[in-house]
Amino acid sequence: MKNEQNTTERIQYLVSQLNEASKSYYQFDKEIMSNFEYDALYDELLELEAKTGIVLANSPTQKVGYEIVSELEKETHESPMLSLDKTKDREALREWLKDKEGLLSWKLDGLTVVLTYREGKLVKAVTRGNGEIGEVITNNAKTFVNLPMQIPFQGELILRGEAVISYSEFEKINESISDAEAKYKNPRNLCSGSVRQLNSEITSKRSVRFFAFSLVQAKGNELSNEMEDRFEWLSSLGFEVVEYKKVTRDNILEEIQYFADKIEGYDIPSDGLVLTYNDIAYGVSLGRTAKFPRNAMAFKWADEIASTHLLEIDWSPSRTGLINPVAVFEPVELEGTTVSRASLHNVSILEELELGIGDEITVYKANMIIPQVSENKTRSKGDLIAKKCPACGGETQVKEENGVKLLYCVNPLCMAKKSKRFEHFVSRNAMNIEGFSGATIDKFIDAGFLNHLSDVFELSKYREEIVQMEGFGEKSYKKLMESIEAARHTSLDRFIYSLGILNIGLSNAKMICRAFHQDYDKLIHATKEELMEIEGIGEVIAQFFVDFMETKESRDEMQEVYSYLFFEEEEEREETLKDQIFVITGSLNHFSNRDELKEILEKKGGKVTGSVSAKTTYLINNDITSNSSKNKKAKELGIPILTEEAVLKLLEGEV
Question: From CA 578, how far away is CA 603, in angstroms rounded?
Fold first, then answer.
């Protein structure tokens, strides 16, 4: 009886842990356990449910997808979108296929979307949601960079596919974010957040791509019974389909290896493969279980796992005080590379693994790419949470946010926080002060020249000390002073952005300043409700802004900086480019950078997006003959490509 009770308690524990992990990952983009650990607990739960016959109503084995938490319109799917049964055993996949013919394709790691076309036009796009109810994202889908807006088929077409963001695009977006904890954790989370935006302009800047993997129906067209024929037909309509290989039991192992060899350099996120019967009628005849269809099987990579020993936990501080744990271990070879570090993401994962120095741990590369700690074999449970901030030596504090424990430095004068704040303050899109490298800022902080943001404008007091510093001299000092003086003449939106208010980027700062007609006094006293009335400003951003303005320390420092500045009066906007949409690519000659050109176009009422679509008015590229993807897309859609010379004429009203 006691063993049965223990088993039941274990089932309850597993259900609770897995549901909490899913909620954290899908709703809040936070990881409280690794994929490896999740899969292990999930498999254990399946085994216990089969053994005992006990299946709880809220078991993750009975549910699929994320819970819907956004304000997007909801829609019920005509038929439930089930997840796939899975295996990591190559021979098991071969046995499942038996003597049938199948298609083996990538299992892409993004967000599943259902598209509906009527009379050749996209009329609806809905996310998978929880498998039964999805979110309507039609306007956002129209910004997917490779999605055809018009197709030659005039009947009703319904297809499914995966919206994804490539690793290269993911890295490019993260590089543009200076704040460490504001960076996205992985392409899947970035894609999910991008596709489910309330503002489609944000989606358009993320270079989301769509890969079709299933044709649901095509009214008015006699469909082939073969999956491969349907893929080829979708390709002929202009859709990109997932890469696939036709397989039998004789060549399937060889083709699995083809994908395994390719994944390390594959730019599209994938967490495995999918094997589907090529004979569609046969697959349908097999029916389904409560959760899985029987016509397809998912294959997840059997991760290469290596044993090693934990040497230390490296705590990495950031601008807002969040300190992230990184496991440092004896170097091991994984997937052809040497690995010695793996992010643990947060305190919750550190505690769950019960890590201690010297513990024997196993590590792997998630999806054969990202180093992760999978298991702690010795579990000595050392006291590894940093009591002092590694940057300033100040006190640290563990805080719980959305069920996840995070470590923060609570010292307001923390060197790491201070240094990162100054880097942001002087950056190009903020105060735009040249001559301030990270090393220079650290030197000035160490020397006691910089404590508050306003101290930047008082550096002339330390002229003699600065010119004597290594790497400095009279000439460098003079240039720095000239740049600081020039920075005092700025715009209100740059000033607001420079303060480093959480989630307030330059675009948001511009929207807020325009909404309050550049009135500083009204802006600093704005209410949450007033801010939420601004198109593109949601509840979360509004709350961050109000919290900042209501914090005495923040307001005092803001007022000090404000006293040194002269604000340019915003020129009356000549909306000569109103409703015109531009895409900028390639190098520039007449403009110092894309941000400068973007600002000029926006002042004229134009919009600048990141990808070419049917809505684009002009593509700006000095190399008109280039075979770049943007040029090709523009030519296909008949969109004019302008050089900078042509843009200058357009700005003068000559085009």
Answer: 10
| Average pLDDT of the segment spanning 176-182 | 55
Closest to 324 in 3D by CA, of 183, 118, 501: 183
Cβ pair 330, 342 in contact under 8 A: no
As a CATH number, domain 492-567 is: 1.10.150.20
Enzyme catalytic residues: 107
b/e 199-225 (16+ beta carbons within 10 angstroms → b)? ebbebbbbbbbbbbbbbeebeeeeeee
Mean pLDDT of the chain: 83
| CA 238 to each of CA 211, 469, 506: distance values in angstroms, whole numbers, following the listed order | 11, 61, 36
Six token digits for residue 98: 């038996």
- 430 C-beta neighbours (distance < 10 Å), count: 22
Q: Which two tokens stand for residue 343?
A: 């992010």
Q: pLDDT per residue over 418-446, tens digit each?
A: 787 888 899 888 899 988 877 888 888 87
Please compute the mean of the pLDDT values over residues 315-332 and round it to a whole number. 84
Closest CA to 607 of 634, 630, 580: 580
Residue 201: pLDDT band with limits 50, 70, 90 = confident
Q: What is the DSSP string of 588-642?
A: -SSSSSHHHHHHHHHHTT-EEESS--TT-SEEE-S-TT---HHHHHHHHHT--EE
DSSP bridge pairs for 371? 365
Instruction: Give pLDDT, residue 509.
Output: 87
The encoded tokens of residue 626 equal 């280039």
DSSP assignment string, 380-393: -----S-SB-TTT-
CATH number for the segment(s) 2-62: 1.10.287.610
Taking a C-beta distance cutoff of 8 angstroms, is the pair 403, 23 a contact? yes
Q: What percent of the chain has pLDDT over 70?
A: 90
Architecture field, domain 74-299:
2-Layer Sandwich (3.30)
Query: In this structure, are residues 332 and 371 in contact, taking their beta carbons and an 8 Å threshold?
Result: no
Predicted local confidence at residue 501, as pLDDT: 86
Which long-range contacts link 30-33 to residues 24+ away (Cβ below 8 Å)? 30/185, 30/345, 30/346, 30/402, 30/404, 31/185, 31/345, 31/346, 31/349, 32/345, 32/346, 32/348, 32/349, 32/352, 32/403, 32/404, 33/349, 33/352
pLDDT at 163 (0 to 100): 94
> CA-CA distance, 107 to 273, in Å (whole number)?
4
Check residue 330 and give its pLDDT: 92
Which residue ranges make up each domain of the chain?
Answer: 2-62, 74-299, 306-409, 415-487, 492-567, 581-651
Give 572's contacts (C-beta < 8 A, 6+ positions apart): none
| Three-class HEC string of 525-585 | CCCHHHHHCCCCCCHHHHHHHHHHHHCHHHHHHHHHHHCCCEECCCCCCCCCCCCCEEEEC
Q: Choose the CATH number for 306-409 among 1.20.1540.10, 2.40.50.140, 1.10.10.10, 2.60.120.260.
A: 2.40.50.140
What CATH class is the domain 581-651?
alpha beta
Distance CA 381, CA 355 (A): 5
State which amino acid sits at residue 83. S
Give the integer Cα–Cα distance in Å for 543 and 187. 27
Do 169 and 146 contact (CB within 8 A), yes or no? Answer: no
Return the ∠ at Cα 445 (arms to 442 and 450), rounded to 5°.
Answer: 130
